UniProtKB/TrEMBL annotation:
<feature type="transmembrane region" description="Helical">
    <location>
        <begin position="97"/>
        <end position="114"/>
    </location>
</feature>
<protein>
    <submittedName>
        <fullName>Uncharacterized protein</fullName>
    </submittedName>
</protein>
<feature type="transmembrane region" description="Helical">
    <location>
        <begin position="151"/>
        <end position="172"/>
    </location>
</feature>
<keyword id="KW-0812">Transmembrane</keyword>
<keyword id="KW-1133">Transmembrane helix</keyword>
<feature type="transmembrane region" description="Helical">
    <location>
        <begin position="120"/>
        <end position="139"/>
    </location>
</feature>
<keyword id="KW-0472">Membrane</keyword>
<feature type="transmembrane region" description="Helical">
    <location>
        <begin position="184"/>
        <end position="201"/>
    </location>
</feature>
């Protein structure tokens, strides 16, 4: 027995009311619920709508919707992390590694304009921190597509925030690190390399989120 459009809308609204705020999960869980309900109803047409709804919901188990959301979040984070790492690794292979080495060299050369290496490194990572904050602002502004929120987009944006901790640690702990290891060109090159890596994280993270947005719009036919 097939559910009517009104009943399908009721199930969709019910799923959303269970604190499932991600559109793709709402669609998926609604489809699963409808299929399960229609199966129960076909096997026993005497059941009422609310009875088959309860039976279908019982199949998910206690807190089943949130458990599925939690599991999907773990899967997406792993997928996005692997994809992000793969994009970054491309800059350590020919020919892009030449650009990475050149970037480190140019950043290192700019340190000659500073008398104090601590000030130089704090300026560098202050810039990186600015990029990180800009990414967070973008996440807040564009986390919805046509008024809908997507778990895949949320987890992709989170990957861009990894440079925040790098920036904070470098800015606030650089003085103590310098006192421990001394002021040498190796010390400066290390932080120049770390800064370039942070920039690569930002660039590839932006590419990843743009791809996720494109895939979402294509899959759900959104503009």
């Amino acid at each position: 027995m097939k559910l009517t459009n009104q009943q399908i809308q009721y199930i969709s609204d019910y799923i959303a009311s269970q604190d499932i705020k991600w559109y793709e999960l709402q669609v998926e869980l609604t489809d699963h619920m409808i299929s399960s309900m229609e199966e129960f109803w076909t096997n026993d047409p005497e059941l009422t709508f609310h009875q088959v709804k309860q039976y279908a919901e019982d199949k998910f188990g206690r807190n089943g919707f949130k458990a599925i959301e939690k599991e999907r979040t773990k899967i997406l984070r792993k997928e996005h992390r692997n994809c992000h790492v793969k994009l970054i690794k491309e800059y350590f292979k020919l020919p892009k590694i030449l650009l990475s080495v050149l970037a480190v060299f140019m950043v290192y050369k700019s340190s000659f304009y500073f008398d104090d290496s601590v000030v130089f490194i704090r300026v560098l990572f202050g810039i990186l921190l600015g990029f990180s904050v800009f990414s967070i602002i973008n996440w807040y502004r564009f986390r919805k597509i046509n008024g809908k929120r997507f778990l895949s987009l949320e987890t992709a944006y989170i990957m861009n925030n990894s440079t925040l901790s790098i920036s904070f640690y470098s800015i606030f702990l650089i003085k103590s690190w310098k006192d421990s290891v001394g002021d040498s060109y190796e010390f400066i090159i290390f932080f120049c390399s770390l800064w370039v890596l942070g920039i690569l994280v930002q660039i590839t993270g932006r590419h990843l989120t743009n791809k996720v947005v494109t895939d979402i719009k294509r899959q759900y036919q959104l503009s």
